[in-house]
Write a structure and sequence with these properties.
By secondary structure, this protein is α/β, with parallel strands linked by helices. The chain is built from 9 helices and 14 strands. GO terms for molecular function: nucleotide binding; succinate-CoA ligase (ADP-forming) activity; succinate-CoA ligase (GDP-forming) activity.
Length: about 290
């Protein structure tokens, strides 16, 4: 069983008529995802990719029963698109857009409080349940259905770890890109909670990096609940220069905060097995699962 998405996920695409929206909508549909509508203000009543286009999220939801949205909207207007989806009570929203202004994301986080929406991103590659649903922009081909849940801050490392897990004969239950920006929606801890509650997820891989404190927060949670499921982590950026952004907005250490060594230490204290190198993640989770049987 996947988390967040399943065979009944009905997707609307905010910003579907642009190049990125068009390209990735086609990719999702070819994977088998149920895309039911697009949203583009001013183009309501038209069709694109043989799908109806609506002016608003509320109209699209009412007409098609969409219960998830993916957002391909430029950074300057991405927050408004997210807030519109939250106000329309869309249960799951994935935002692919990068470089959404931090103050705009603060407004989005306020809108999420007390809402019925789970937001993944911004700056997320999305959510993938192999063979079930693709709600995102990730590459496919290496994924296989299986029992390993993957939570990641890095899109490229997710692809690498998926390939390793598949090569180890394990497969994935779901992969979730929580987003690389400093301020985003669903965090690593909340995602881990969902995986621990999923009976078909046997073990979890956490892919973290420098910047922020998410890894320490998830380590505190693991230390508190002491889950029976094996958890393996990879933390990258140990040799990154301080106070220089590496890759995206969230990968930044300032004044010693967010350093890789501190994250590794916190996770190891919580009982997590930390892979010493990116190329060892598949082998490490396979060994952890074998030892748990």
């Amino acid at each position: 069983m996947a988390i967040l998405i399943d065979h009944d996920t009905r997707i609307m695409v905010q910003g579907m008529t642009g190049w990125a929206g068009t390209h990735h909508t086609i990719q999702m549909m070819e994977y088998g995802a149920k895309v039911v509508a697009g949203v583009r203000p001013g183009k309501g009543g038209r069709s694109h990719l043989n799908l109806p286009i609506f002016d608003t999220v509320a109209e699209a939801k009412g007409a098609t029963g969409a219960n998830a949205s993916i957002i391909f909207v430029p950074p300057a207007t991405a927050a408004a698109a997210m807030i519109e989806a939250i106000e329309a009570e869309i249960p799951l929203v994935v935002t692919v857009t990068e470089r959404v202004p931090a103050l705009d994301m603060v407004r989005v986080r306020e809108a999420l409080k007390g809402s019925r929406t789970r937001l993944v991103g911004a700056n997320s590659q999305g959510v993938l349940a192999p063979g079930i649903c693709k709600l995102g922009v990730m590459a496919t081909g290496s994924e296989r259905p299986g029992g390993v849940g993957i939570v990641s801050r890095s899109a490229s490392l997710t692809s690498e770890v998926v390939a390793q897990v598949t090569a180890a004969g394990l497969g994935q239950s779901t992969t979730v890109g929580v987003g690389g920006d400093a301020i985003h929606g669903l965090g690593m801890r909340e995602c881990l909670e969902l995986f621990l509650a999923d009976p078909e997820t046997d073990g979890v891989v956490l892919i973290g990096e420098i910047g922020g404190s998410e890894e320490q927060e998830v380590a505190d949670y693991i230390a508190q609940v002491r889950p029976a499921k094996p958890i393996v982590a990879l933390i990258v950026g140990a040799h990154a220069p301080r106070e220089r952004r590496m890759g995206h907005a969230g990968a930044l250490t300032i004044g010693g905060s967010g350093e890789a060594a501190a994250k590794v230490a916190a996770l190891e204290r919580a009982g997590v097995t930390v892979a010493s190198s990116a190329h060892l993640v598949g082998r490490t989770i396979a060994e952890a699962l074998a030892g748990a049987r």
